[in-house]
Design brief:
The complex is a heterodimer of chains A (550) and B (161). Chain A contains 18 helices and 21 strands. Chain A is an alpha+beta fold and 550 residues long. An eight-stranded mixed β-sheet of chain B has the order 2-1-8-7-6-5-4-3.
């Protein structure tokens, strides 16, 4: 993974010093709450229901075991012994003290981490494919490009006070695992007719109050022009994005109001002035790429025979391998998901002790590296098949081996009313109740791959609009109700879910999901997935069942 | 009045004229709209005018006039309104303006470093800010990843050596 040199380290250290001074001035009354707000937000610090909430950046989801141990230490020393992984591949702490945040950032800086631009109206942490570098369907590893974007966007002087937040995602594979179509900018590595690799550039996707699928504004961009093109898009957005209404300030609204042709023309015109002056330096690209060279894979990993024996012997292990691991481009290796969706545990939560254990397992079995996924799980990307059985036992001892990745109990869920001051419903209890009904493994696996996403309010941090089943908390005269949508997806076939009908009360959400799943089982044809069934038969059969007794 | 210019605190006598107000001294600024309406007479007076840009103004409209302008003011109606950052950078990089670019209004200390990088070289904050306390903010960082309107050596260039 990328390693800081003296310059990267200097910048992060200077940022810590700057924030320490900002916090001091705020506590001394020299900065008003209004003035401090954008400053603390650009360092990932929110003021929430119970306490400040600190969001730490995990650039494109990549973590070393050393960094994970530091995250555990921070959870222990400054928080209540746990952290929460988010859909943006970051981690959040819910209980830090404001006056201690500069110390937390200083500790993070010692392991090349920071909270820069994890919130605020600026360019956020760039996200990517959690299987980057290990999946067989990859054209090129996107992480070097993510790192180049990370450096370019970090403290960019022109784009620190945008109309609204700005999110970039990069995918380098045929299958889009980075939800690039629902980002402000989605970059897709692809090959043109001449066989050269470059980027398809999408703009204007996003979730939240106005969910929209992004549109392609450039089918092919030469790699050397990546930063100049991003800069052109950001400049057009900074100058012309709406600032009169924060709910209409995202670039998706600008693109919608100007139309994709005119928006594209504005970007291309801006780009024509800067493209030649801002070409990427080849030496720097090559330097960054070397950090993502493959680790020292064993050439004989596939000759192991113990794996097949264990699979035949132990059905629990076999189920975990089938559900929680995926193919690796190197024979004899697999990528292993670490489920943060154990029964009774809020989705994405992990304790300090679990983080320490996981860091040790990563050192022992996966070259000391981990990744955070946008589905709020973790991943050990490079595990030898011969090691899987021991790893499974180690994970199971730490309650990290629930075999449910991609299934109905692997729910994406925002922190909700229990933590977040924006929310109008508590999403976590709903997620836990739905998951609790999936304890029968045969039933869970029979349902197949299904994405259930829950957001506690229309800001959509739980990505409900792209859930196969989306669940949105709404406030009805002080009571928590939930609106359901079906048929959303953030993958290659991206689509926004369609509303099922009137909202249901909180105590009926799990029953309603049951009814939807039963209806699927009754009406599916052959091996059809839930999403395929919804797309084939549409909403009416589900509506009839759900609202039959109303 | 005092302002920060080119890294030091200096006395400044520039008047920011309202649209109906007649100039009394030699150095003054007018709004973008007034400049467009009274360009000829303001130039004929033989003084050194400046123009105040607010966020929505189109720079192309005054590009040809830049050689005659003593200063260009980028106004901050609110500190969170970041359009001034792009305007300043375009003035320097696209239009080659070499005169004073002054940030004026509701910007805050923590924006100074970014403002310098996009080409602003003078600072006239809204009342009440201690200029001495602002000066260190010009040097919040010693390293920079990305190219902007200043002429600093970038991190990748340092690495390339």
């Amino acid at each position: 993974m990328y390693q800081y040199d003296q310059y990267d380290q200097t910048l992060v250290n200077e940022r810590v010093a700057q924030f320490r001074d900002q916090t001091r001035r705020f506590l001394a009354g020299e900065l008003s709450e209004e003035q401090f707000r954008p400053l603390r937000l650009m360092n990932g610090l929110y003021i929430q229901t119970h306490a400040p909430m600190l969001r730490v950046a995990i650039p494109y989801g990549l973590l070393s075991s050393r960094q994970l141990r530091m995250l555990a230490h921070i959870a222990r020393k400054y928080d209540r012994g746990y952290g929460h992984f988010t859909t943006r591949q970051n981690i959040q702490y819910n209980w830090p003290k404001l006056e201690e945040v500069p110390d937390i950032l200083a500790e993070l800086a010692t392991v090349e981490m920071h909270a820069i631009q994890t919130s605020g109206n600026c360019i956020r942490n760039t996200t990517s494919d959690h299987l980057a570098g290990v999946s067989a369907d990859e054209l090129e590893d996107p992480r070097a490009w993510c790192e180049i974007i990370r450096q370019w966007s970090t403290l960019h002087p022109e784009f620190a006070f945008l109309p609204r937040k700005f999110k970039i995602a990069v995918s380098g594979a045929a299958k889009d695992r980075a939800a690039t179509q629902v980002h402000d900018i989605g970059l897709h590595l692809l090959r043109n007719e001449q066989g050269e690799l470059g980027f398809e550039v999408l703009v204007g996707g996003g979730l939240g109050r106005t969910p929209i699928i992004g549109q392609t504004i450039r089918p092919f961009l030469e790699k050397k022009h990546l930063l100049s093109y991003l800069e052109a898009i950001l400049r057009v957005y900074n100058l012309f994005g709406r600032r009169d209404n924060k709910y209409k300030a995202r670039v998706k609204i600008l693109l919608k109001e100007t139309g994709v042709e005119e928006f594209t023309q504005m970007v291309e015109e801006e780009w024509s002035h800067i493209r030649d002056a801002l070409e990427l330096d080849n030496k720097e690209i090559e330097r960054v790429k070397t950090f993502f060279n493959p680790p020292g894979y064993a050439s004989n990993a596939s000759t192991d025979t113990s794996f097949a024996v264990k699979l035949a012997e132990n059905s629990g292990f076999a189920a975990w391998v089938r559900v929680n691991t995926v193919e690796h481009k190197i024979p004899g290796y697999r990528a292993v998901f670490v489920s943060l969706k154990a029964p009774g545990v809020p989705p994405g939560d992990i304790t300090d002790a679990q983080m320490d254990i996981l860091a040790d397992l990563a050192d022992r079995y996966s070259f000391g590296e981990l990744r955070a996924t946008h589905t709020q799980n973790l991943l050990l990307a490079d595990v030898k098949q011969a090691d899987l059985y021991e790893l499974w036992q180690g994970l199971a001892d730490a309650n990290l081996a629930t075999a449910n990745i991609g299934k109905a109990s692997d729910i994406i869920c925002c922190p909700g009313l229990d933590f977040c001051s924006l929310a109008n419903s508590s999403s976590i209890p709903v997620a836990l109740e739905i998951a609790a009904r999936m304890e029968d493994a045969d039933y869970l696996y029979d349902l197949g791959d299904i994405r259930i996403n829950i957001s506690g309010c229309m800001n959509g941090c739980g990505h409900h609009t792209v859930g196969h089943i989306g669940i949105l908390g709404v406030d009805k005269k002080g009571e928590e109700w939930f609106q359901l949508t079906l048929g959303g997806s953030s993958s290659n076939d991206a689509s926004l879910g369609e509303r099922l009908g009137p909202a249901v009360p909180k105590d009926q959400v799990a029953n309603t999901v049951d009814t939807i799943l039963q209806t699927y089982i009754e009406l599916r044809e052959g091996e059809e997935s839930f999403l395929e069934t919804v797309r084939r038969i549409g909403m009416p059969p589900f509506q009839e069942k759900v609202y039959a007794n109303h | 009045m005092q302002i920060i210019k080119d890294g030091t605190i200096i006395h400044d006598d520039v008047q920011h004229l309202a649209d109906a107000e007649a100039p009394t001294g030699n150095r003054f600024t007018v709004s973008f709209e007034r400049w467009k309406a009274e360009r000829e007479s303001l130039l004929a007076a033989g003084c050194a005018p400046g123009v105040r840009l607010s966020s929505g103004n189109a720079l192309a409209d005054i590009a040809g006039d830049l050689p005659f302008l003593d200063l260009v003011v980028v106004e901050f109606p609110a500190f969170a309104d970041g359009r001034a950052f792009s305007l300043a950078r375009l003035l320097r990089e696209r239009y080659g303006y070499a005169g004073e670019i002054r940030a004026r209004g509701d910007f805050i200390r923590d924006q100074l470093y970014f403002l310098v990088r996009v080409g602003v070289n003078a600072f006239e904050p809204k009342g009440g800010l201690d200029l001495e306390k602002l000066l260190p903010a010009l040097k919040d960082f010693s390293v920079n990843y990305q190219a902007a309107a200043d002429d600093v050596e970038l991190i990748y260039q340092k690495r390339g050596k």
